[in-house]
Amino acid sequence: MKLSYKREFLIQRYLIIFTLILASVTVCYYYIAYPQVLFHKIPKEFFYTYTAGQVSLFIISCFLGKHRLAKAICVLPSVFIMIIIVFTFGGVKSPGILWITGTPIFFGVFYKRSGLLFGVLAMISTFASFFILDHTISSLSYPLTPIQYYTLLKFNIVQFSILTTIYFFFYVWLESNSRLKLALSNKQLDTLLHVVLHDLSNPVTILKLKISSLLRKSVIDDSSYTQINNSLKKVQEIISNVRSFQLDSESLLTEKSIIYPKLIKDYSEQHFKLLNDKDLKLHFDIRTNSGFFCEQKIFFDHILSNLISNAIKFSYEGQDILIKLYEDAGHLYIDIVDKGIGIPKDIIEGLFHFDRKTSRLGSKGKIGTGYGLPIVKYFTDFSNGKIKVISDVNIGTRVSLSFQVAKN
Predict the structure, then answer these.
(1) Rounded to whole angstroms, how far apart are CA atoms 162 and 12?
(2) In sequence order, what are the beta bridge partners of 405?
(3) Is 384 left (phi over 0), alpha (psi -120 to 50) or beta?
(4) Could you tell me the domains of the chain?
(5) Which residues are paired to 400 by β-bridges?
(6) Do 341 and 393 touch, CB atoms closer than 8 A?
């Protein structure tokens, strides 16, 4: 099931640009066709400075990759200038008063539930202000002729219909995509919990039997202690993997940021130091300065950390681990390479499935849960990336991640 996360991000970006262009064109139209109305009480310098400043800040934000800021610069000032124009053309008597009813739609599409609520409050507040100040607004406004009024009314109806239709289609598509995300998340979670509950029963059973035996004998020997300790560690590791998988929907829908090679190097060094108990050496081969879009918590806590942990677990004492970053054909590749025990071919086929038995003994005899790579695969797919594993027994393993290079 392939989700269009990248497409959603791009469509929203194009919609933001379209909104800014439409707002700018509309304001320019009023500047040219109705200057006597627009500048009747508000200085034209205000409109010129305001519009030029908004467009300039938007372009700078996009160039710097600050897409969240660019979105705010597009939406908030555009709605504000819309309210100002409606005010100058008569408030509730303005031919463009219907634009105020679109405020919840505009905010809701870009900021979801919180934006919708804010838009409703803005709409109610604006209407209330216009009705309360109706007499004052009428006295300040430049009177329109009937022909001007109906010409503007038709212009606003057509423009409003086109924009709201586009927004509505995007909202429906966004809702459908969100349902798809939720369905996939629930399916993966159900599978994981089913497998976890099954696998937890074995170590728990061993613990119960050993504890019963110890109670009868009133003694703990080394062998029993080792078995109990290993079983407890197994349970703890399984629980840890389940918790790492259970990201709530708010976290999953967090806006992505650009992850650069330096961030990857810094995190890898810190994580490697925490887990390195075999005198291993970590090397880097960084051949690009490009980055890619991904939610940082997802990439570092659920993708990279699992791959580094696996490389350490299945490497022999004193060996080297390599993290290589390079760019090819518009994609950024991250390879994690070890020279450890490798993966048998019969296991590789089921590496990314929660319901397959892929747990193995590490180089120090520590057995894994088999959930690490399915979790990595899940979040890599979620982030619109790809993962590939190449391995030979007793030669080593190469795990390769690929993401599309971010373009500011």
Answers:
(1) 17
(2) 292
(3) left
(4) 5-179 (no CATH), 256-408 (3.30.565.10)
(5) 335, 388
(6) yes
Name the phi and psi angles at 4, rounded to 5: -95, 60
Q: Which own/partner pairs from 50-59 qualify as long-range (CB within 8 Å, at least 24 positions apart)?
A: 50/77, 50/81, 51/24, 51/27, 51/81, 54/20, 54/78, 54/81, 55/20, 55/24, 58/20
pTM for the whole structure: 0.50
DSSP one-letter code for 87: H
Q: Supply the DSSP symbol for 302.
A: I
> CA 255 → CA 7, 113, 132, 269, 394, distances in Å?
14, 15, 40, 26, 41
Instruction: Using the Cα atoms of residue 369, residue 370, residue 371 and residue 373 in order, give the sign of their dihedral.
Output: positive
**pLDDT 10s digits, 125-140:** 999 999 999 888 888 8
For residue 283, which amino acid is it? H
Q: Phi/psi at 398 (nearest 5 deg)?
A: -120, 120
Residue from 319, 331, 302 nearest 400 by CA: 331
333-363 residue pLDDT tens:
999 999 988 888 888 877 887 666 655 555 4
**CA nearest to 188, candidates 1, 351, 7:** 1
